[in-house]
Amino acid sequence: MTCDLVLPCRDEAAALPALLARVPTGLRVIVVDNGSSDATAEVAGDLGATVVRENNPGYGAAVHAGVEAATAPLVAVMDGDGSMDPAELLPIIDQVASGAATMAAGRRRPVSRDVWPWHARVGNQLMLAWVRRRTGLHVHDIAPMRVCGRQDLLDLAVGDRRFGYPLELLVRAQRAGWVITEHDITYRPRAAGTKSKVSGSVRGTLRTARDFAKVLP
Predict the structure, then answer these.
(1) Is the pLDDT of residue 74 over 70?
(2) Helix H segments across 36-191?
(3) CATH topology of domain 3-215
C-alpha cells in the first residue's frame, strides 16, 4: 500500500457511505473526526475506515492528526463532504509516485455556478492572487485534493491548525523547492444533510479569510 487517504471530517456522517464506496481499491482511508455532533466516527468505522479523533477544532488540526496516523509513504488529503470524487485521486497519486511532482493537487472545476458560492470563490481567488504576487507560485486553487510524501509533509512543519493550513502548506512547499502540479477535478454539490464550514455562509468565508491572512507571506 503506497498511499493513505486522510479525510478531515466534522458532521459528515451523511456523506461518508457514498464517498467511501468510491475510494479506489488499495487506499487505506483515515477519517479524522474533528468534534462531530453526529455519527461520523461510527459510520466511518462501520464502513471499514480507520478512525482518528482530534478534539482540537480546526481543519489543520484534523489534517495533521490524520497525517501522523498515516503509515504509507504517500498521503492524500481531501474533504469528506462528497463534493470531490476520490476516483480522481489516481492520476494525482501517479504524478507523485513517478517522481514527476513533489505534490500534485486538484483544481476544482464546478459542475454548475451554484456549487461554489460567489463569496467563497472570490475569497479564494483574492488569496491566490496575493500568493502568486508575493511568492511567484502559480497555482489556481488551494489544493483541496492533494497528494505528497508523508515524511516530506511532516518535514515542512506546517504550523497553522485552522483554515490557513492549505495556504501555509503551499507557501512552505514553494520555499522548499517542491515541484507542484495541478490537475482539474470535478467539483459537485456537497452531500445532502451536510453543511460547509467555509463556503456555507459569508461569515464562514470571512473567518477563513482571516485565517489565510495570518499565514500570508
Answers:
(1) yes
(2) 40-46, 59-69, 89-97, 118-135, 150-156, 165-175
(3) Spore Coat Polysaccharide Biosynthesis Protein SpsA; Chain A (3.90.550)
Residue 146 — φ and ψ, nearest 5°? -155, 155
- Whose cell is 497528494? That residue is 147
Beta bridge partners, 30, equal: 6, 50
98-157 pLDDT, tens digit each: 999 999 999 999 998 778 777 777 777 777 887 777 777 888 898 999 999 999 999 999
Report whether 182 contacts 142 (CB < 8 A).
Answer: no
What residues does 182 pair with on adjacent strands? 105
Q: By three-state DSSP, how is residue 8 classified?
A: strand
H or E element in which residue 208 lies: helix 202-215
Burial class (CB in 10 A: 0-12, 13-18, 19+), 215: buried
Is the dihedral angle over the CA atoms 109, 190, 207, 182 positive or is it negative?
A: negative
Closest CA to 74 of 48, 102, 49, 34: 102
Distance CA 129, CA 109 (A): 18
Cα(139)–Cα(131) distance, rounded to whole angstroms? 9
